[in-house]
Amino acid sequence: MRRISVVGSSGSGKTTFARQLATKLHLPHVELDSLFWDADWTQVDNDTFRARVGDATAGDAWVADGNYARARDIVLARADTVVWLDLPLGTCLGRILKRTARRARTREELWSGNRESWRRHFTGNSLVWWLVTSYRRKRREYEARFFGPQREFPHLDVRRFGSAAEAQAWLDAL
Q1: What is the pTM of this model?
Q2: Which DSSP category does 44 fall into?
Q3: Which of 25, 28, 165, 167 has the most CB atoms less than 10 A away?
Q4: Could you give the CA distance from residue 129 to residue 127 in angstroms, rounded to a whole number?
Q5: Which residues pair with 59 in a beta bridge?
Q6: How do residues 111-132 score in pLDDT, each as one tens digit?
Q7: pLDDT tens digits for 153-169?
Q8: Rg for the chain (alpha carbons), in Å?
Q9: Are the C-beta atoms of 32 and 16 separated by less than 8 Å?
Q10: pLDDT tens-digit readout, 63-78
């Protein structure tokens, strides 16, 4: 377990878990969101993003978090392990609302100087709307990708956790 991809729905705790896992294993942490977003919430173009992801995962050890389809082939082909945080929709939704409230209140800086706001989450690029409309589809896709008869990446050791407590217990046992 040296190249680990942490995936899951928005609000599942990917970044927090990946950061803890990277610290525990003494590996670099790669946050795909930080490679995707430039200043003023500008998405980088596909070629730039793929190049950034390629560079960040070129090493022999890392923990990457994120679900970007446009770089999935890079990350999962290089990974040896996937941690799928398959938490319930209600848990993910509650976490997004709580996290957004905290970040909007504290004006926490994210990537490239970006900051979250309540208005941003309920207009245009609403993470709440994205979660609600994509949750079930993403679960079906992950199920097929990691456990179906036509597994896309059969070399991967997939760890699927249905609760935060289950994921934490695994992490604590490492």
Answers
A1: 0.87
A2: P
A3: 167
A4: 5
A5: none
A6: 666 666 666 555 656 777 778 8
A7: 999 999 999 999 999 99
A8: 16
A9: no
A10: 999 999 999 999 999 9
Q: Which residues, including other chains, have CB under 8 Å from residue 84's CB and lie 6 or more apart?
A: 7, 8, 142, 146, 158, 159, 160, 161
**What single letter denotes the amino acid at residue 123?**
T
- Residues sharing a CB contact under 8 Å with residue 123, sequence separation 6 or more, in sequence order: none
**Any long-range contacts for 53-58 (C-beta under 8 Å, 24+ apart)?**
56/30, 57/3, 57/30
Buried b (16+ CB within 10 A) or exposed e, 55-65: ebbeeeebbbb
In the three-class reduction of DSSP (H, G, I as helix; E, B as strand; rest coil), residue 114 is classed as coil
Alpha helices, H only, the chain: 14-25, 32-36, 46-56, 72-78, 89-106, 118-122, 127-147, 164-173
Q: Closest by alpha carbon to 61, among 35, 10, 33, 24? A: 24
Of the candidates 151, 173, 158, 152, the one whose C-alpha atom is nearest the C-alpha of residue 1 is: 158
Q: What is the per-residue pLDDT across 61-115, written as a single tens digit (0 to 9) for each? A: 999 999 999 999 999 999 999 999 999 999 999 888 877 776 666 666 666 666 6
Alpha carbons 104 and 84: distance in angstroms, whole number: 28
